[in-house]
Design goal:
Shape: globular
Number of strands: 0
Radius of gyration: 22 Å
């Protein structure tokens, strides 16, 4: 658990026995807090679980917009930038006087305002993502509630419309019976086994998608997807930029780096664990995106599970489509605790600054967890679909967490340890993030306005 951090700069050498991250600056430099007993393997599972969430569902739709080759290049580029940004974060970890945390290094560079800005971004990003998870779980098990992409859930397909198959009941039971025992765990490393199962389920989802797609390809019901974007289907070339936030959100895991690192037996191995995780997740994203796009083509939805629900069109048994949906929903159930861990810590830092660590205050820990779960449940019931909000979140809060803030820390270089190439890369990261996000937001706004105008004309006629 990452306790509330002090955002002030501390004198070097007051952090306990630590091995310098940068030997050439070891004099008065950063010192790491003693690690826990977690292994690199456990860290890889937890980091990978933090990365792979709703991103899997979005990748096929992003590939439909961009075409296969540009999408694969974008996945590789964002993965590389994410790895670099985490390396920046780890390089500046341990210089401030508080326990190592993302908020700590932001506070060390930009003061209390920087730490608070990060906490707000993380709170909004994780809240939106967790609400999306609950919505998806409810849709898979019970069915969607309105909108153009309605589908029957697994329970309603099997048992018909019963009071206990209602979306509100299904989400409530899942939250209380399944999720609550997991989110009440106080150590991230205690989730390493659920994380391992979660990654396995992501692989199962990938293999099912692969199997259905290959069957459809050989049976003639699917054709190879286009390698490049089809501009005739786009209202504007700028729509290509709307896929960028989707990929950025898919690789936004930075707020879990320090809690996972703190529990490793050798904290200096965190960089290796992150690199392995990023490569693993990039491969999974690429395969799921390609085979999902291959299977559904131009009909690929933002929620690819809706495609599995209606029919893959490949002539495979519906049970196989249900297996794909259920494996993904269970994956999200197991990812949920890690994201709530970060949300809980950041909300605690915003509401109760300077208090003793949350993990040591049982009453505050349980109360805050219960309140957050209740709020998430209420939002999941009140908002049937938040994909537009999620897209805007990727262009704002998520891009700040994953690219802009780490780059700004390097450019600020509060301790004079950044090299020229580091600052050049940081400036490039920030510039690319600001430009692509601005264009994506503008394109989304224009598309929304255009849709409203077209809808008004249709109603008038």
């Amino acid at each position: 658990m990452t306790p509330a951090v002090s955002t002030g700069k501390g004198a070097g050498g007051e952090h306990g026995v630590e091995e310098p991250l940068l030997p050439e600056f070891s004099g008065g430099g950063p010192r790491e807090a003693p690690g826990g007993g977690a292994s690199v393997c456990g860290a890889v599972f937890n980091v990978s679980t933090s990365i792979i969430g709703a991103g899997i569902m979005s990748i096929p739709a992003a590939m439909r917009v961009l075409g296969v080759l540009p999408a694969l290049l974008l996945i590789a580029a964002v993965a590389a930038l994410s790895d670099a940004s985490v390396e920046f974060m780890l390089r500046y970890t341990g210089w401030d006087s508080g326990p190592p945390s993302y908020a700590g290094i932001m506070g060390d560079a930009f003061g209390r305002a920087g730490a608070k800005a990060l906490n707000v971004c993380i709170a909004f990003t994780t809240t939106g993502t967790l609400v999306v998870y609950l919505i998806i779980i409810g849709d898979v098990m019970s069915g969607s509630v309105g909108g153009g992409d309605e589908h029957a859930g697994v329970l309603r397909e099997l048992f018909g419309e019963q009071w206990w198959t209602a979306r509100e009941v299904v989400i409530l039971v899942t939250a209380v019976v399944v999720l609550l025992p997991l989110v009440l765990r106080r150590r991230v490393d205690s989730l390493k086994f659920t994380s391992a199962v979660s990654i396995l389920l992501a692989v199962v989802f990938m293999l099912i998608s692969l199997g259905i797609a290959v069957y459809a390809l050989f049976s003639g019901t699917a054709k190879m997807p286009p390698m490049f974007p089809d501009f005739s289907r786009l209202h504007s070339p700028f729509e290509l930029f709307t896929a960028v936030p989707v990929i950025v959100v898919a690789f936004t895991f930075h707020f879990n780096v320090h809690p996972i690192r703190a529990e490793m037996s050798k904290t200096s191995d965190m960089k290796t664990a992150v690199r392995i995780s990023v490569v693993l997740c990039a491969v999974i994203y690429a395969l799921v995106g390609f085979f999902g796009f291959l299977l559904f083509g131009d009909a690929t939805m933002a929620d690819v599970l809706a495609n599995f629900d209606r029919s893959s069109g490949a002539g495979v048994p519906q049970a196989l489509n249900d297996a794909a949906r259920l494996s993904y929903a269970l994956h999200l159930v197991l990812v949920f605790p890690l994201l709530l861990f970060s949300l809980r810590v950041n909300v605690d830092e915003l509401l109760f600054p300077g208090r003793r660590p949350l993990a040591t205050d049982k009453r505050r820990f349980v109360t805050l967890t219960a309140v957050l779960m209740a709020v998430l449940y209420a939002l999941a019931i009140a908002i049937p679909s938040i994909w537009t909000l999620f897209e805007y979140s990727g262009s704002t809060f998520a891009v700040c967490i994953s690219l802009i803030f780490p780059g700004a820390i390097v450019l600020r270089d509060a301790h004079g340890i950044a090299k020229s190439k580091d600052k050049a890369l940081a400036a490039t990261m920030i510039t690319m993030a600001v430009i692509t996000s601005s264009v994506a937001i503008a394109s989304n706004v224009m598309s929304s306005i255009s849709g409203m105008v077209e809808g008004g004309h249709t109603a008038a006629s």
